[in-house]
Specification:
Elements: H1 3-6, E1 22-34, E2 39-46, E3 53-54, H2 57-67, E4 79-89, E5 92-100
Antiparallel strand pairs: 1-2, 1-4, 2-3, 4-5
Length: 120
């Protein structure tokens, strides 16, 4: 038995990616109570996935650059790549999900909604 099956999570974990990058299309971003203290955090959801990714600043910034907007309401339809990696957290190495633009040849469907300048 895989130990991750014994302790299922409400949100996507790096182990859910089976060690492989996954190209996914964003469907929505919602604010939800997360963790023991039920702190409100942004969670991004994807086509074909029941679970979402709780956003941290690193992943939110990555999506903002790919989508060319800081407005999460405008991220639906944007394609990104989820990939597992190791990061330092609390002085220890732990597996995490990170987000990047799809490799060349893949289309990141960013919506053009205005001529606003994006602060990148």
């Amino acid at each position: 038995m895989n130990i991750n099956a014994a302790f299922p999570s409400q949100y996507l974990k790096a182990a859910d990616l089976d060690g492989q990058p996954q190209d996914v299309t964003i469907t929505k971003v919602e604010m939800e109570p997360v963790g023991r203290e039920k702190q409100m955090k942004a969670v991004v959801y994807f086509e074909g996935w029941d679970k979402g990714v709780v956003l941290n600043k690193t992943n939110a910034t990555a999506i903002s650059k790919i989508a060319s907007t800081w407005e999460t309401d405008e991220w639906a339809g944007v394609t990104v790549t989820l990939f597992p990696t190791f990061v330092e957290f609390g002085g220890e190495q732990t597996e995490a999900i990170r987000i990047r633009a799809p490799k060349k040849g893949k289309v990141a469907a960013a919506k053009v909604v205005s001529d606003e300048k994006v602060p990148f």
